[in-house]
């Protein structure tokens, strides 16, 4: 426990002194700030301080944090847009590491997980496809893997593959049986980025700028994967995706809570230092209302997060709890940053203060990892099953 | 733990079989349903089953539930508007009992707490006053208690005194020193209802109808109280009010969560059984959105509640946590019932279904125990102190 | 125009001096205030002052106000919950009069419209049915009229028939051809209340109390109607329902705007006269925000209303405009009254101030005349047709 | 009238064929698209078609459109982010032209207004200052103009001066009498950009990218202005600012309505062309709700706008109407674009579709021209004056 408290304190300290100044100097644009070189430089510092990849199993150099303990550490990292990268708890690596730790063979863990935990390469998770393929509805998966010479040949197109450009390896979701729209028959494959047939076609030009490697469109053309690089069992890919999904949703919430917390603190400090109409802005009722609503939204986000983490740590799937926590958090943290922007007035929409960039980075969270509408759909169906008769 | 689980299960069962039918038959109007006689009848049944006053200390016949354990039991009771009365966990008795247990002398506990725990009388908490007296701002307290013949003489007017009509005794908040608008100098006094000078002037005709004894205007004219009936120390009344306040806020949340949960379940069942435009109502996206939002609001309410309870159980004042949980809950549960009404269409605004009455009973919760605006004000000021420099 | 201005001024004056005191004395409960006798008494006074049924054609004693001119007059009437009844512009009579004026034969107009315009009887519009009949989806109409001896025999059940108890005649919507779920084949029939086979089964106990004659469940058993009492042409009932619908929606908005305006004015006056925390409540930012939002909601409601009225006056169906105006208004005016309740604190949920009763009366408006969800559905489909390709 | 209809049609056509492709090709970044050269090129085409500066008085080549007629034309221009620039109806030029037409001397109009109307130069309005100067509270004005040699010397700092970089002239607001925080004593001065002492210090790096000339920080150091370049009367600057303000607010609303309309149309078309979960996205209830809410918000924005314009055209100050319309519009159009982004899923936060860029450009509108909170404050104070006694 003392270790966790120290880990939090030191992560907070590291982020504020080493990472935040670089983030602010480049308005949260990771490429402008140095890109891959910046990552290597910051991770080296984090490694020195024992702060790198804190959630990795101890055998891979981490602290083996459970979900509940990840929450405050990842939030501390998220306080800077570059923080999760700096301590190596960023999506998609963090979720990929989690998945490899749970499903990977010993040899896969040595080959893919260890260098990931050590920050020696990055990774990407290639599931989402352009319409009409897998998107909000994963069952629409079109990419196919077919048997060939004791291995597999993968063909298909992917889109919004975060971190793809520069990744060391890919986890590729491909259909090994069943037809599109079947919720069965997917398999996960591991493939080094150097495997022939893997092509990064373009970066989708999204509004966020803090994710190394972008959100890419990719083509897989006759990508050959051996049986050793099948992750888990054949045809069980959708099940593993669920294993990855719940925790990955929650770690997104952790990181973005940190970012929203910073926007909030910035806005409170701004209004406390600014006079208008004969009073401090922070003493005006309409400002107080926004500040209080931020506090309430942050508290409710954390409360839902902690409950979902406790359920995951107890071994549950926590589908409902993580779905509710993700949906609430994405909307609540968006409100927090939007109010923070508003509280800062003209400077709130500029790079003079760090609130506009946080708003920009956070907006997509209501869409990825399941748009709010898809989550609500599943939450409602569950309620109708429970109370509808 | 098995005991708590059983207590919950049995409370659920008791409420649904013995209490709910009476509640529904009288549209939640407690006077129409029998008033004080109904209370005595239902509490007798609850006593038989060992469900009465579960939060009372064991020496007074209860289970001594801490706040965390109260939550599911009180929520089960709140599922019916008459449930909290039936198992004797209703405001203001429940908060008064809590206060007496913490502050009362042994003799006060025997005289006032024991019969309260046993359901032999009810009580009221006389703090709020008509403008310009104590309201959202307790420091405006105008009622005065003055030294007289080794005791005290209390004079003043009170308003919105819940449960006053028919109460066996009152806890009266009166100023023993300091001027109005001073946040010091109040004292709490215990007075049997039969004490000369206590007058119930009228029931304020509020929209809710499930509280026995109404919300009354009262006058205290030369009400004589002995030193033995001073509750706690002289001039420390505001401090004790705080002791009562945090837990009392949370038990309100518990009970109202039960009521809102019932509205939600009713609406889901209604929409699942109703066809329109060629589909079940519960399969239409706009209905699903309302159902999902209800689930989210209920989950966030419970998560905030549990955190505040844990903090109280750990011995904290939990001012911030209870303030946030109360504010969020009052608004979220209001939204839940409002959506439930909307989902039920024309029947939703009638007494054919139990949603309109729940909406009616819940509305005042955004106002009493501190209007949302006053809580936001204090939450904001706290945030400005924390981040404002 | 001077006539209109005078009509408004005198309606305002009449409502405030003659109607409002009775409304307030009985908390908006029309039966408690005298019911049918009260109507006769107030309408007599309105008649004396030339304020009765101002929208009726001149030949029936009215001013023949177009929709645009009705707006301020009906809003003035709606300022009291009994006002629309007092000047005879209440639903459903007002819509029925409108329909008779547009579709009725000369003889029908003499027999039904003239006494309606003169306040000699009331009327009801019998369209809505219990599930699975006509509700949000009028095409589900189950009540049937069949040919018999040169006339018609009507059989079926109806629900939520406003004003039915005590009505002098009914406009009955019945299926004369087609199957349930067909949007064709309905016919409107006129029937005096004394016609054998018409039965008022019960009042649905809804939360509102200001509508004379309640919202009733009815049975029509072999109700015989002659061909002279067919309103308009056979099988054209749905078309006429549309004729009635657009204007009826808008006059609801007019009346409820008056009621919400009163709640708003009450709340502003209350906060301006009340001190808390060292300031007038009306000078506190959170109160100002609610007051301003009320002003904005009222302004937007009136702006949308005026545009829809202008479109109707120009001869258009204005389906989109009235649908948008109704949906917005029902929600905006609900917000206005809810904020007004909140601004008035404890008294806001009591009958000491007239805000709680207005909130209670207004709530059903989001449901009747098309729930907001059904309107949104049709608004969206229209947009998809327009922009979707 | 036929002229207005033609003007609208031709503006729509011009914007879609000549302007929109350039806007989309550069993600709304005006500098990347050519900056000042692009403006000159597009305005030349607009001039050829008779579409340039349509609101300018006829003597300066325009159509002298009143506010009501500007609405549909400016909205058509706003459909592209570069449209207002292309037809020369952009802020701040449009408001400056309006002001010069109302207040300028004949010689000032020839010297400043004519080339502005003809697109030969741009202009800027230098009012806002860094804290603690003029911002939401104009009375805090610090910049001073002092008498010197029969003219004036202006000294002070300004911030958020839109279009400053590259402007041909400035309208400078400076204090000629009174102390800071006095709402009197300001004067407006005209100064060519070449006047010595005018310095553009930096562009504030705001999130929007479609405004030519940026939002600049400036210093005025001993800027000498002759009496001929005083705009209007000395010490009457705040009054003229009000003349400019109401109409300028409304033309902002017009332009942004066009942009939001495009986001909405884009989202509807996207959802109509996309399948998910076995249906068109546009047939799913939650999507329909967002689409309908967009329609409602757009309709209410236009209705409030038209009422305010009618009031201005009738010669009124329309302070209340323009304040309400601006506040509602800024928030409603923000909601429209945010929903549009959400409806488009992953592509909604990318530059593949034009919704993210519109959201980015629109966000600041809730802050400039008076933040929503300042408008609410003034709306509330007005209501309290009206109803508060």
TrEMBL record, chains A, B, C, D:
Keyword ATP-binding: no
InterPro entries for the chain: Acyl-CoA_dehydrogenase, Acyl-CoA_DH_CS, Acyl-CoA_Oxase/DH_mid-dom, Acyl-CoA_Oxase/DH_mid-dom_sf, AcylCo_DH-like_C, AcylCo_DH/oxidase_C, AcylCoA_DH/ox_N, AcylCoA_DH/ox_N_sf
Top-level lineage group: Bacteria
All residue ranges annotated as the Acyl-CoA dehydrogenase/oxidase C-terminal domain in the record: 235-383
Family listed: Belongs to the acyl-CoA dehydrogenase family.
Self-association and partners: Homodimer.
Name of the protein described by the UniProt record: Acyl-CoA dehydrogenase
Organism annotation: Mycolicibacterium diernhoferi
């Amino acid at each position: 426990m003392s270790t966790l408290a120290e880990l939090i304190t030191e992560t907070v300290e590291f982020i504020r002194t080493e990472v935040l100044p670089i983030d602010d100097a480049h308005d949260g644009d990771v490429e402008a700030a140095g890109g891959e070189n910046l990552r290597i430089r910051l991770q080296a510092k984090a490694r020195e301080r024992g702060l790198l990849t804190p959630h990795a199993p101890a055998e891979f150099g981490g602290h083996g944090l459970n979900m509940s303990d990840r929450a405050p550490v990842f939030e501390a990292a998220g306080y800077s847009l570059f923080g999760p990268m700096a301590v190596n708890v960023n999506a998609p690596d963090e979720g990929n590491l989690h998945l490899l730790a749970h499903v990977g063979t010993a040899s896969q863990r040595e080959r893919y997980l260890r260098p990931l935990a050590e920050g020696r390469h990055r990774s990407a998770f290639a599931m989402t496809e352009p319409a009409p393929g897998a998107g909000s509805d994963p069952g629409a998966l079109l990419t196919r893997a077919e048997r060939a010479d004791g291995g597999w040949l993968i063909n298909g197109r992917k889109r919004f593959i975060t971190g793809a450009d520069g990744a060391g390896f890919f986890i590729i979701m491909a259909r090994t049986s069943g037809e599109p729209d079947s919720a069965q028959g997917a398999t996960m494959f591991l493939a080094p980025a150097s495997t022939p047939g893997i092509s990064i076609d373009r970066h989708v030009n999204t509004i966020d700028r803090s994710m190394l490697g972008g959100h890419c469109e990719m083509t897989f053309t006759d990508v050959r994967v051996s049986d050793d690089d099948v992750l888990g069992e054949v045809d069980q890919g959708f099940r593993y995706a669920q294993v990855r999904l719940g925790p990955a949703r929650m770690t997104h919430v952790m990181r973005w809570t940190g970012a929203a917390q910073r926007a909030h603190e910035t806005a409170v400090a701004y209004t406390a230092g600014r006079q208008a109409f004969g009073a401090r802005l922070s003493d005006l009722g309409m400002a107080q209302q926004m500040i209080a609503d931020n506090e309430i939204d942050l508290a409710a986000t954390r409360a839902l997060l902690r409950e979902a983490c406790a359920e995951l740590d107890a071994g549950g799937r926590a589908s409902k709890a993580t779905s509710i926590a993700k949906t609430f958090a994405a909307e609540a943290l968006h409100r927090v940053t939007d109010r923070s922007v508003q509280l800062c007035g003209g400077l709130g929409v500029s790079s003079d203060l760090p609130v506009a960039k946080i708003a920009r980075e956070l907006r997509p969270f209501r869409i990825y990892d399941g748009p709010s509408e898809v989550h609500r759909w599943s939450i409602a169906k569950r309620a109708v099953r429970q109370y509808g008769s």
